Input
Amino acid sequence: MASIRLPRANDSLFSLADDAVDGAVQYEATLPLKQNTSSAISGDLQMARQKQVLFKAAETLLSNAHDALQIADSNAKAFLAKFKKAMTGAMGDQWRAEYGEAGFAQGSLQMPGTQDDRFAMAYKIPKFLMDHPECEDARMTVQVTTAQAQTIYDVLDTARAAVNLKETAAGEAMNVRDVAVVALRKRLTGLIAELEQTIAEDSPIWYAFGLNAPADPSTPGVPLSGPTLTPGAAGTAYSVWGIGRRSDYYHVWLQIMGTDAAPVRVATVTDRAFTFTGLPSGATVKVSISGVNEAGEGPQTAQAEIVVP
Output
């Protein structure tokens, strides 16, 4: 007997909800559906998708903020190296008490190894250079000046603050998205419960809602369509195949004729596509696909065949 499990991935959950809406449109009047109607499912789906879009936008802004921080930190690291060279050139490369004012640890001239430590040192350098102007080097190729030190610190400070703000915004957007996804999961769970009270365990109507029939076996069915093979560059072939009911992921099987006595599993993927590379040009290869879930592996598709370019 197959368990009716909702997909873990949000995109797969949304696709299932789309199927559920279609099934409800077709059958809600004749079954009938009382609570989990097409409009109810569609409303929860639209809300979840909207919040997902907003979360992804917040993720993008956070990624951009991290990129800007990486650049600011890289510039600070380069500036600190030039600052140390200018400082020791003016004061010598043996430890002096003044070096502690610039953020160096007692008795050490080791450069900071983390962003936090570079930020702490960058904060101290503008005042150090004001107090010790002999350590400035205003040449265009160096630019170790009080003004430049302040700019380096300000940019790094702004970038760090931006990351903190975007992390907060992304976290809040994720929480809102998760609430909407939970509501959609609850809606689909309610739909399953309603269907269980309305239709038989082996009814094909389950499939109209994108769901497994409870009477189905627990392991995946054979993918609805076998692999389609398309030649690419030399030694390359592309493969796509149909969805496999109850499949969480897929095994990709390859048989090189004249080399392999039987199909060999070469990959495990969650997408329904795979690119073969490094195949022997001119060889005939056969490809088949099997679905897999927690209960085990389903049957392989019929083999598709191609001559490798």
Notes: The chain has a mean pLDDT of 94. The longest strand covers residues 284-293.
